[in-house]
Amino acid sequence: MARGRLPLGSAVLTLLMVLALSSCTTRSGSPSTPSISATPRTVVTVFEPFTPAGVLNTDISVVSTRSGRCWTTSEVSRRSDTYRCMEHNFILDPCFSDPDVLRPLVACVASTPTDLHKLLVLRLTQPLPSRAGQGASASPAGLPIVVVLADGTRCNPDQGTHAVIAGMTANFHCTNGASLIGAVHRSQPEWTVLTTTPGSSDISKVTIARVYV
Predict the structure, then answer these.
(1) DSSP, res 30
(2) Measuring CA to CA, how many Å separate 203 from each of 146, 171, 177, 188, 207?
(3) pTM of this structure
(4) What confidence tens digit (pLDDT) does each residue in 15-30 have?
(5) What's CA 58's distance to the chain center, in Å?
(6) Pairing between strand 118-124 and 90-97?
């Protein structure tokens, strides 16, 4: 064997190693800097069932159209366009008024758990009650009408008499049987709230993925 030459097997092995290294360099490119994960943040959605022209938005399905009346403002929302209404003996709250005042109707949440994409339209038999300046414009600072926890559990506002748990008011009931108690804490990008544990007296803090206001 001449001096300076590698055995055939060693040459082939060396060539394969060079090709492998070349392939890896091409696939990965230049070294990347470690990515910085985004800060978890609660998504706040202002629910607007109507367009400014007074037409229901295209993502809203009308499950039924009935006749009824609204006798007071909403119990679960402080928005200036929400009311507490009745269809026969069935209470509907919240109901959202049509911005076109010439159309005497409201769109009401009528499902449990709340599905804001499926609303009942109530044709009013009486004028809406005067709000006399009550209520606020719809904004992210408003009271949640739906709370979605980080695990996907959906929670709706309690109505009527509220239970008191550990000295705090139960404000929401959830699809997993739990209650949300006390205030929603909004001081951080990811909101939190205290919750009961179904079948237990334990209370824990949970994070909120999304709210609709």
Answers:
(1) S
(2) 21, 14, 13, 20, 13
(3) 0.77
(4) 334 334 344 333 334 3
(5) 19
(6) unpaired
